[in-house]
Amino acid sequence: IKARQIEPTDDVLSDIVNASVDGQHPMNLEECLSVISQLLVAGNETTTSTFAEGMHLLATHPEQVQLVQEDPSLIPNMVEEMLRLSTPTAQMWRICKADTEVHGVRIPAGAAMMIKFASANRDASQFPDPERFDVTRKNLKTQIAFGQGVHHCLGAPLARQELITGFQVVLQRLTHFRLPEGAGPLEFLPSTLLHPPKPFTVLFDPRTESNGSKQPSPAL
């Protein structure tokens, strides 16, 4: 950080450590570390958590796997449905800007709130049968796994493309996803904000071409 402050380059780190707010001095070391750590976590753990939970969904919904393997154009929509159900950032702190009332509960201006993105993504009035994994669901652009407004995730386009590309490779080369016999329900690691699944095992078979040859194993 100090090296980039003394001799900036054209990388993101230089932009962060030399940024200023309202023309004031650049952020101090503690503030720089906070922003950089958030950038690293947001760009890594959330995407891998969604991919992991997505694999669990494929292993427990063979009929949906068949749909996307017969029509790969459904993969982007499938990714949106995975984001809706996994919501890797399950909740986040916000500050109420004005006196508000929600369902009879008064929230004064300045109050700290924990906004549950995962709950909104399972709102039955927005997503009928919300617990169902449906790769053909029509209104998935309204899911808020990436937040909303000024807090919308800057890395959303990259995360979407990473997930789409990853699942394109997986679904092209592998099939018959399943959990080991006797596997229990998916469990999650304790976290205040995120929703990372605990490690689990998925079994699969290589896909075969019409001539009987097998697809090469994916380089993942």
Architecture blueprint of SSEs:
Elements: H1 2-6, H2 12-17, H3 29-42, H4 45-60, H5 62-70, H6 75-86, E1 91-95, E2 100-102, E3 105-107, E4 112-116, H7 117-120, H8 156-173, E5 174-178, E6 203-206
Antiparallel strand pairs: 1-4, 2-3, 5-6
What would your notes on this structure say?
This protein is an alpha+beta fold. The chain has a domain at 28-90 and 117-206: Cytochrome p450, CATH 1.10.630.10. It has helices at 2-6, 12-17, 29-42, 45-60, 62-70, 75-86, 117-120, 156-173; strands at residues 91-95, 100-102, 105-107, 112-116, 174-178, 203-206. It has a two-stranded antiparallel sheet with strand order 1-4. A two-stranded antiparallel sheet has the order 2-3. A two-stranded antiparallel ribbon has the order 5-6. Helix 4 packs across helix 6 and helix 6 (75-86) crosses helix 8. It is globular and about 65 Å long. The two termini are 32 Å apart. The mean pLDDT is 91.
Short description:
The chain has helices at 2-6, 12-17, 29-42, 45-60, 62-70, 75-86, 117-120, 156-173, and strands spanning 91-95, 100-102, 105-107, 112-116, 174-178, 203-206. It has 220 residues and is an alpha+beta fold. It has a domain at 28-90 and 117-206: Cytochrome P450 (Cytochrome p450, Orthogonal Bundle).
